[in-house]
């Protein structure tokens, strides 16, 4: 049996993963090898074993986070997931957040805005869905759709896009100041893998519900989306909330890499167990009197 | 390897479990053997194996339910969990709902009502937390607290309690008519087991956050709560939403029994995969043109 690595060793390894996924200046998403597995060359079987081990650690840290949230702490973690159709956002929700207690998780999938949502600023529905203190939140799509979609469709001019970038940065700085750690992940699949996954949704009756004719329209607009992602990654990767790009043709790797980023964020909170808010000796005596 | 049982065999077995947990006329909760394991005499190891197998089945049925919710279906399942402190409600949320995709689950824990909630009818906050179509909802405590607490404290007269029972029955009938299956479970621990669990929360620093001095106050009022539960179980067990009482001194059994009740509800929905809302041949051709 392998020796359990120390926290410092785990942390160094997670830093290496994060470094390998970080957005670098001049990055173009069309150049990414979506089948690559940066910082991890041990293959799928080892990857799945490692994911299970990381899950145990995440589960322990998630409980500490939850405990702090229940006793007045303000920390939370928000995982922002972006990606084209079939990139595997739902699989991350299921297989990564499925590793921890569902009570400590707050999931929100953003679709096309409703008429009520359109009557408000674009961040209104986002603010309403923020994870409460003590939770790990997951946004399946997010406020970045409000840049990606008009950018790709060409329906917003440069000033409007700049205003949205500014609003988002201010919003994220406010969240971080309030105790939220933001982990932004763009999952990226190749054209070929996207084709194969859409084809499977059309071929299998148990997958039909996941398909929408709009998926093909968006696929046809893929170059415009690539340009939109490039701009988002370049303009909204900053110290307090950088973007990570996760190659997602191999589902096991996308889950492993995203888990690594999440585990790193949880470790960084440095949470022990909260101090009791009552006198333990007194309460032991009160309890024993009821025996 | 054991032969996979047919749906009819599974259903017959689940019916037997439900029958063994159903509330019978004249039932008194103080008479329940909380360490018993009705309809299941194979022990913990077998119980845990069976739970894992049921989890796979639940997971498949949950995905069908979710698929229907995404394509216009109105069905949902609501698990209402009641029980005294330490009865294991959180463990059910974690270990039973943890068996299925977190995206398909909607969890709500009800605490003491907030000032805003108190300005509304007692069902206002309950309605706001109902699971959307396609989801499995879990209420950790529920509208039944609005009978149990005043009943145990003696702060509501008979007419008020009757009015609440009537409002609840009308509300539940409305939910069922709208497509929701309601599964009501009261988890019950013995006095001794409750003592041991509270003692553990006081002895272990990683459990302190789960303890509240109020837990001892409620323990002292246990006979009043027993009477309140007896009245709730007798007066709100009706055809469309009966109560089940799950002996919960053995955590593995409480999880197994609650899972069985939930699986039975999911099987009863009889859901296949939804029909496509588009023409498959047309879409295959459109997709192939993008290859």
TrEMBL record, chains A, B:
GO terms for molecular function: phosphotransferase activity, phosphate group as acceptor. One of its GO terms (biological process) is polyphosphate metabolic process. InterPro entries: P-loop_NTPase, PPK2-rel_1, PPK2-related. Gene3D superfamilies: P-loop containing nucleotide triphosphate hydrolases. Coiled coil: none annotated. Residues 46-266 form the Polyphosphate kinase-2-related domain. This is Polyphosphate kinase-2-related domain-containing protein. It comes from Cellulomonas persica.
């Amino acid at each position: 049996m392998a020796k359990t690595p120390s926290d410092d060793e785990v942390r160094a390894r997670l830093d290496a993963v994060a470094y390998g996924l970080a957005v670098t200046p001049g990055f173009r998403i069309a150049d990414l090898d979506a089948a690559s597995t940066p910082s991890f060359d041990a293959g799928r079987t080892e990857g799945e074993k490692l994911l299970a081990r990381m899950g145990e650690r995440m589960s322990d840290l998630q409980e500490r986070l939850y405990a702090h949230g229940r006793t007045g702490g303000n920390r939370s973690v928000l995982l922002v997931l972006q990606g084209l159709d079939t990139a595997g956002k739902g699989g991350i929700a299921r297989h990564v957040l499925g590793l921890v207690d569902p009570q400590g998780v707050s999931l929100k999938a953003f679709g096309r805005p409703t008429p009520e949502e359109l009557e408000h600023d674009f961040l209104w529905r986002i603010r309403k869905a923020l994870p409460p203190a003590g939770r790990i939140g997951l946004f399946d799509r997010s406020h970045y759709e409000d840049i990606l979609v008009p950018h790709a469709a060409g329906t917003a001019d440069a000033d409007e896009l700049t205003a949205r970038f500014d609003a988002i940065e201010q919003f994220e700085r406010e969240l971080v100041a309030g105790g939220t750690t933001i982990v932004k992940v763009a999952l990226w699949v190749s054209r070929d893998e996207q084709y194969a996954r859409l084809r499977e949704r059309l071929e299998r009756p148990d997958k039909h519900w996941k398909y929408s004719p709009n998926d093909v329209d968006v696929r046809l607009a893929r170059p415009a989306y690539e340009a939109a992602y490039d701009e988002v990654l370049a303009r909204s990767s900053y110290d307090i909330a950088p973007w990570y790009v996760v190659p997602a043709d191999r589902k096991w790797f996308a889950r492993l890499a995203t888990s690594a980023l999440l585990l790193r964020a949880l470790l960084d909170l440095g949470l022990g167990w909260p101090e009791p808010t009552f006198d333990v000796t007194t309460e032991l005596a009160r309890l024993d009197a009821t025996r």
